[in-house]
Specification:
Layout: H1 6-29, H2 33-55, H3 69-99, H4 107-131, H5 134-154, H6 164-189
Helix pairs in contact: 1-2, 3-4, 3-5, 3-6, 4-6, 5-6
Length: about 200
């Protein structure tokens, strides 16, 4: 099958695990030779991984797709949006349970409106794309995500557990606009045999 390359998979795992260990060690212990070693090692393996992908006739990740600015921007927007959503979801759960003393059984109820806003955004994105250019909708989605993150940043522990609800709704709707449309662009630009 396309991309069936165990060496590339091992290289990619080494990059992810090496960089993750380096960041965690740096955060826990501060700058050290061990952190630096793992950063440099991860970087070197990543360089070899990319060289291997360029040389293979059927690579695990087709780096030539990134020559298309539309593809590269869509992947970047998708990554930023998902990073914001996943990070905010983790922080909201911690804020509710640790900062606002909401029980683990009732905290998800407070996160539900944000999830519903995600679904609404996923359903609204194709309708909006029929009227406006995808780039405009993705930009609006990224702005909404930034506003949602700003609202989360201003909802401190003294504002009560419900203060995160509007923020997660704005963030969730914006993120889902970006993810839905950028995924469509990615799958459209990728060759049919690579889009699965």
């Amino acid at each position: 099958p396309p991309g069936d390359d165990g060496v590339s998979v091992l290289q990619l795992l080494a990059v992810v695990f090496g960089a993750t260990f380096a960041m965690k060690h740096l955060a826990e212990h501060g700058p050290s030779w061990l952190s630096a070693f793992f950063f440099v090692a991860a970087w070197a393996v990543c360089d070899r991984f990319m060289a291997r992908q360029r040389a293979l006739p059927d690579p695990l990740i087709d780096l030539s797709l990134f020559r298309s600015s539309a593809f590269a921007i869509a992947v970047g927007a998708n990554a930023c949006a998902l990073f914001a959503w996943v990070g905010a979801s983790l922080l909201v759960a911690q804020h509710l349970q640790l900062g606002s003393a909401v029980s683990p059984m009732s905290a998800p109820r407070r996160a539900l409106p944000g999830a519903r806003a995600c679904v609404a955004g996923c359903l609204a994105a194709p309708r909006l794309a029929r009227r406006w250019w995808n780039g405009r909708i993705v930009t609006v989605g990224l702005v909404m995500a930034a506003i949602g993150l700003a609202l989360l940043a201003t909802s401190g522990s003294g504002t009560g557990p419900m203060s995160v609800v509007p923020a997660t709704m704005v963030l969730g709707f914006g993120v889902s606009l970006v993810v839905t449309l950028s995924t469509d662009v990615i799958l459209t630009l990728a060759p049919a045999r690579k889009a699965g």
